[in-house]
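Supplementary Text 2. Reproducibility record for the structural model of the 145-residue chain.

All settings were left at their defaults, and a single model was retained for analysis rather than an ensemble. We include the record here because the model underlies the residue-level annotations in Supplementary Table 4.
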Amino acid sequence: MIIKELNAPEKTLINIKELREFLRIDSEVFDESIKQSLKAAITEFENRTNRILVENNYEISFFNERVVLAPFNSLENAQFKAEFKTNSNVLYCEGSGRMIVNLGYEELPEDIKLWLKNYCLHAFENTSFPNISKALINRYKISFF
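Retained model, structure tokens:
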């Protein structure tokens, strides 16, 4: 499966000012480092849970495979030979094709937001990175059908 983001996201998941306050940083000097840490945190969470956090339109191409996309908001365009179904904001497909879908959170759940902030805190302080708790993974992980 190939996922391509179609345009730049309109907003960030966590405002840089809010993140600076959480990290107890008064200066804007470290904003680029903080943004890089947030991007790494988002990637880590997405890889562990099979969810896309940043709301945007994505082009999905797949060939003879199972595709699970969440949180699924809408199907914009589809050209595929596949069976698909939706359940609780999750899109399940099996087959081949190409589609444009809107995925991601309009409003990020607070537990995910807190985990992202803690990841940035540990990255900024050069300490060991936080593990995603099994309870948080189980709550948000999308399993294959």
